[in-house]
Amino acid sequence: MVDFGLIDEWEPAPGLLTSWVASPESVARARLAPVHPAPPSHQQEQYLRLASRHAAAEFRYSGLCLVTAEIPTGDLNRDAMTRAVNAFLSRHDTFRTWFRTGADGTIERHLVPEADVEFVSVDCGRVDDPRTVRDHVQKTTPGPFDWDCFTFGTIEREDSTTVYLAVDHLHTDGFGQYLSGFDLAVLYTREIWPDAPDMLSPAASYLDYCTVERTYTEQMSLTSPGVRKWLELLRGNEGRLPSFPLDLGRRTDVYNRSAHHTVTLFDESTASDFERRCRANGAEFVGGIFAAAALTEQELIDSDYYFGMTPVSTRATAAERASVGWYVTLLPVAFPLGSTTSFDRIVTLAQHSYENGLRLAPTSFQRVVELLPADSDLDLRPGWSCPMISYVDARELLGNELFDMASCGLYANRAASEQVLIWINRLATETTLSVIYPDTPVAHRSVQQYVERLRAVFHAAAQEQGR
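That's the Condensation domain-containing protein sequence above. Prediction below.
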């Protein structure tokens, strides 16, 4: 399985800790990097403005993503790992950029020349306490306005080694985190076994992607079809973004930090039953997810309309699918429920709504918000956020059969949390459901109630198919 959670929950075994960080000379050279015309993506700009707005928080407000794996050898070649780390950073141009806010308020990208990038190993000695490692990772990985907001490390033992990558969310999404682990493994293997087959495809430029995205969205106006559809959906929801159906007890006088909960949703046999139930009604697994979410809300708050959001990858080419970056957009899934409680009927509506939402992928919601006039009747404030449900079928990822063997992990820091974010991941042997939510007593109770009800709806649908 793959472990999901917060960095606080990562429990690496004791060993010799080595980290790879930017050399002082490299950091100094990076500060001199010239402005590059490629803008941040819409997702990056919103993220950076939020990070800047909350820079005075007493904790790291921005997201830190940690990817971990175990390899069955204690004989690590550190020179080979150094070469692999630097080859990885050269392969993906997002890691050679940093941002600052210009005098006119725009966010400028700076591009560090490839020759100026140099990560070096630092011997940190033996560590016996997992908390020491967790603190080290978070303290040595800078925030999103520093170029070197990513670090690497290993914890060596006699018969195994933990490998990790810690990177600010600015440079990665969920698929990018998988790619990072895969790329590093292949690059290291190539260093120690020169005759190993080359399994890496050419990677696209993330800077080119950002440029194309902005060129397209700059042509949009309030009358553009995609913009009009977004506004229609919002007005159909009383002018508001979707909201979690239960109270979260969020305080407005302090930051709400993150809490986490992961459960097993299905074993693979039950997941297959659920998928067959969906397909019998012209839908896919993802349609079933939103049907279950809609029926859960109907039970909890007697709603007759479902409006949710889902992040999807915007990688459109083979080269982009080999590229690390933040290739994500947020899409709507909205449909009427009426009074029906029939999963078979709702799943068809949910699948149709999801497919309609995919048509809005080129219309960045961040751009839609930018276009709204100051006197808009829609309730969209700076720093807006909303709940989301993400679905990933990890069985489609190259090398997924090694996830269990490598004891892979994906962790996030306890950043600020205002919403309920749900990730449903279908793995080879099980489907898991992970939730990040505000760490308040009320939210703990509400999320537990919601997850229990959601699981019951999922299992009811799967069991009826399995009979």
